[in-house]
Amino acid sequence: MADVKTIAESLVNLTIKEVTELVTIMKDEYGIEPAAAAVAVAGGGAGGGEEAAAAKTDFDIELQSAGGSKLKVVKEVKNLLGLGLKEAKEMVDAAPTVLKAGVPKDEADSIKAALEEAGATVELK
């Protein structure tokens, strides 16, 4: 059997295109759905919580509140997420709620800054 550390190093160094190809192969040839694989991988590392927190690359953008300028926040949510006005308003009304999950750090910071500029209270998790 292959060395697990070598496999892990290979996975970490994959490009987005290679990850997409890997997901397709796992799904087509082995019947493994990507969500099921993510749960299996996430459940396997019981001892590395500190390392996982330090290496976090994807964030959930959580709207805590719309603040005093609800209309500006609704418009900003609509523009940033490509939603219709009704859907954006429903998301803002549902605060606290996750607006977008699994976002890279740069994009998450950009969205957070835009929403805060509109008057919202936003948290990255």
From TrEMBL:
<dbReference type="InterPro" id="IPR014719">
    <property type="entry name" value="Ribosomal_bL12_C/ClpS-like"/>
</dbReference>
<keyword id="KW-0687">Ribonucleoprotein</keyword>
<comment type="subunit">
    <text>Homodimer. Part of the ribosomal stalk of the 50S ribosomal subunit. Forms a multimeric L10(L12)X complex, where L10 forms an elongated spine to which 2 to 4 L12 dimers bind in a sequential fashion. Binds GTP-bound translation factors.</text>
</comment>
<feature type="domain" description="Large ribosomal subunit protein bL12 oligomerization">
    <location>
        <begin position="5"/>
        <end position="50"/>
    </location>
</feature>
<comment type="function">
    <text>Forms part of the ribosomal stalk which helps the ribosome interact with GTP-bound translation factors. Is thus essential for accurate translation.</text>
</comment>
<dbReference type="InterPro" id="IPR008932">
    <property type="entry name" value="Ribosomal_bL12_oligo"/>
</dbReference>
<dbReference type="InterPro" id="IPR036235">
    <property type="entry name" value="Ribosomal_bL12_oligo_N_sf"/>
</dbReference>
<dbReference type="GO" id="GO:0006412">
    <property type="term" value="P:translation"/>
</dbReference>
<protein>
    <recommendedName>
        <fullName>Large ribosomal subunit protein bL12</fullName>
    </recommendedName>
</protein>
<dbReference type="Pfam" id="PF00542">
    <property type="entry name" value="Ribosomal_L12"/>
</dbReference>
<dbReference type="GO" id="GO:0022625">
    <property type="term" value="C:cytosolic large ribosomal subunit"/>
</dbReference>
<dbReference type="InterPro" id="IPR013823">
    <property type="entry name" value="Ribosomal_bL12_C"/>
</dbReference>
<comment type="similarity">
    <text>Belongs to the bacterial ribosomal protein bL12 family.</text>
</comment>
<dbReference type="InterPro" id="IPR000206">
    <property type="entry name" value="Ribosomal_bL12"/>
</dbReference>
<feature type="domain" description="Large ribosomal subunit protein bL12 C-terminal">
    <location>
        <begin position="59"/>
        <end position="125"/>
    </location>
</feature>
<keyword id="KW-0689">Ribosomal protein</keyword>
<dbReference type="GO" id="GO:0003729">
    <property type="term" value="F:mRNA binding"/>
</dbReference>
<dbReference type="Pfam" id="PF16320">
    <property type="entry name" value="Ribosomal_L12_N"/>
</dbReference>
<dbReference type="GO" id="GO:0003735">
    <property type="term" value="F:structural constituent of ribosome"/>
</dbReference>
